[in-house]
Amino acid sequence: MSQESKNLQTSARGMITPQKVGNFVLNNALIILMVIAVIYIAIINPNFLSTGSIINIISQTAAYLPAALGIGGCIVLTGTDLSAGRIVGLTACVSASLLQSTLNMANKMWPEIGALPIPVVIVVAMVIGAAIGAFNGFFVAKFKLHPFIVTLGTQLIVYTLLLIYVTMGNNNGMAIANLDKSYTDFVKGEMFNIGGASVPWYVLYAVILTFVMWFIWNKTKFGKNMFALGSNEEAARVSGVNVFLTTVMVFALAGAMYGFTGFIEGARIASNTANTGFNYELDAIAACVIGGVSFVGGIGKISGIVIGVLMLRLIFIGLNMIPGMNQNFFYLIKGAIILFACALDMRKYLAKK
Amino acid sequence: MQENALLEMRDISKEFPGVKALDKVSLTVRPGTVHALMGENGAGKSTLMKCLFGIYSKDGGTIVLDGKEVNFKSSKEALENGVAMVHQELNQALTRSVQDNLWLGRYPTVGGIMVSEGIMRKKTKEIFSDLEVEVDPSAIMRTLPVSKRQMVEIAKAVSYHSKIIVFDEPTSSLTETEVEHLFRIINMLRDQGCGIIYISHKMEEILRISDDVTIMRDGTWVATRPAKELTMDEIIKLMVGRELTNRFPPKTNEPGETILEVEHLSGKYTRLRDASFQLRKGEILGIAGLDGSGRTEVLENLFGAMTKGGGVIKLHGKTIQNRTPKESIKNGFALLTEERRATGIFGIRDIRENTVISNLNSYLMGGICLSDKKMKEDTDWAIQAMHIKTPGQSTQIRALSGGNQQKVIIGRWLLTKPEVLLLDEPTRGIDVGAKYEIYQLIIDLANQGKGVVMVSSEMPELLGVCDRILVMSGGQVAGEVDAKNTSQEEILTLAAKYV
């Protein structure tokens, strides 16, 4: 393209200001709408912006964040992961069963073992998650199956494992409760409090994981290879990237994140059944999409995922605070946000002719 | 063979299910030379290179690089052992930055874990300044024009400091100046003692840049000769395997009265501005111009595939809108798109579906059910009238050669009974032999009274087939010439008018 024509184009862009304003509004429409929604809810229910409420929103965001960070990588590869929720469920039950209180042996799933050291349980949960994730990744990379199909399958397999697990030992399919104090303190205990509202420890863990994931995505070879692979698999292959290993690792990393979420949920929910984690993947995918992780592939930011999870939590908690709001409408609003976010996202990648 | 060979590929064979893609092909590259690899599409040039580069595994033969036998299992291995390649299709991560693409697969790290953006940027700038490439290392690939992306790809291949560099059709999207630039780079590499394998269809380029030429046909080796001893006609003869004296069929069409008038046509989102021209019945109007000059935009705006910014279209003196392709087809227009594989064929669908897809309304029985019998008849007609070589109607179209695919699409359009045919690069990626048949088809269409507008980047083709040629430059019509009384020089001068 000649210099002259480039200048023409740039000057043309500079001239049309209303269009630029319109573009700005559209590109940031979601955030603008969220701000409006927050202001609206805060006006009709001032409690929404009380310290306790804000800490509640942040805590819930922290709880849902790790799974979304994991699934984000799968979406960057133009894939998805439907097995996330069941992996969370399995690892939550495993974590809880390994950390039940020894004070009440009658209700303990594995009476023969005491409460294990917490780091060991974290590792166990993350390794289980990573192994299932690697299994997903193997099928995706080796047999070129779409992750939707692969994880649709593993999701069912993992559910069976979960159903079997909760009937093992002394448990007989009951909810796994009666957790060791060290476990609940480690997760839900008060890190510090602001004006009487306590901030739990798991917020810190989410912050640490967010930073670690940011580092992996942006600063490591693996992260860069992941984006290149999502952007153009063939280009990555002919540039000498190990496509197979990278794919397996993305899914394994995602699995490890679900494993950690499971560990947190085990204590957060406190009474875990085979239903724990059900549908978590849908919220995680929704959060990623809202946060601009594109199904086009090769596009996404950790900050976007954090914003996506936060927005979903804001809306859920906010809607609950609107007096007289029919709960059934929550799903409609969530669905509308997902469609709206995706349409806006695609708009950026469509070239007008 | 030769003592001083840098790369020696001997008796390479490769079979795909049902096809013998390579049959004992040999190629020897001397250090400090450019070795051109020529052949029609499907002759096996790219397959041979992919066997070298570890993308395909060869079934037989040996590869000796620098005195050592090698057999690369992956591109990574090839790159590590001094073989780099500029691929035919632009293989780039478009959502990532230029430097991320350049260092993909070998990111420089600090402490083995952290990728260093600083080192990457510095090295990128060094390479770009060595090669005089002017691209911002942090620009997102998607925002660059194709020619710049191609230059980045070339710089990337060079940056591996390889002994062997393969250029697979590197100039297809480059402007004249950039081709010169590429040749300077290649000459530099040659002086450094690299062995260069250069694949191109452009004979002028081959004769200019290369030292040796190897010609392939149907997966076999045909000849290897010094470039000095070859002429264009000889190369064509070796490639096609027969004399090709008449590249163009006799022009028998006679233009009649004006049927189409286009006035001040402009694109809303494209650079097309103020294009005016007329088309007569039975006439073949050529559109020439450089890449990006607005040739394709003329056709796609006219057809409603791009959004019009203004202008008037008159068919038989009556103003028509052509807002969408659907409307244009109703008005008697047909468009053969530029990228056959991307926007022309439905690859995994069969010949019949590909033939009838634009004309489904006329096969409806009772407004609901499609008549298999009528579709079959029409497809038979297309196969016969277009001389399509296919085992049958239920063959997947992607199994046909480029030329036959193109004939299917022309047949598809003729079923809609168009008055005006818009052909965008109708012979792109088609073998020399098959091109003749396409030319004949185009002239036959004009003989039947259709108006034909044909865009092409091959000037001899425009001069050989068209009656008049419209020359585009910088989104505008730079001039109109009579095909009989013009020269390539005149067209090139006009094409550069608004650049």
Automatic annotation (TrEMBL), chain B:
Keywords noted in UniProt: ATP-binding, Cell membrane, Hydrolase, Membrane, Nucleotide-binding, Repeat, Sugar transport, Translocase, Transport
Signal peptide bounds: none
GO BP field: monosaccharide transmembrane transport
Catalytic activity of the protein: D-galactose(out) + ATP + H2O = D-galactose(in) + ADP + phosphate + H(+)
EC code: 7.5.2.11
Subcellular location(s) of the protein: Cell inner membrane; Cell membrane
Its membrane topology: Peripheral membrane protein
Domain of life (superkingdom): Bacteria
Segments forming domain ABC transporter: 7-243, 257-499
Record-level Gene Ontology MF annotations: ABC-type carbohydrate transporter activity; ATP binding; ATP hydrolysis activity
UniProt xrefs under Gene3D superfamilies: P-loop containing nucleotide triphosphate hydrolases
Family of this protein: Belongs to the ABC transporter superfamily.
Functional description taken from the UniProt entry: Part of an ABC transporter complex involved in carbohydrate import. Could be involved in ribose, galactose and/or methyl galactoside import. Responsible for energy coupling to the transport system.
Database matches in PANTHER family: CARBOHYDRATE TRANSPORT ATP-BINDING PROTEIN MG119-RELATED, GALACTOSE_METHYL GALACTOSIDE IMPORT ATP-BINDING PROTEIN MGLA
Protein name: Ribose/galactose/methyl galactoside import ATP-binding protein
Organism the protein comes from: Intestinimonas butyriciproducens
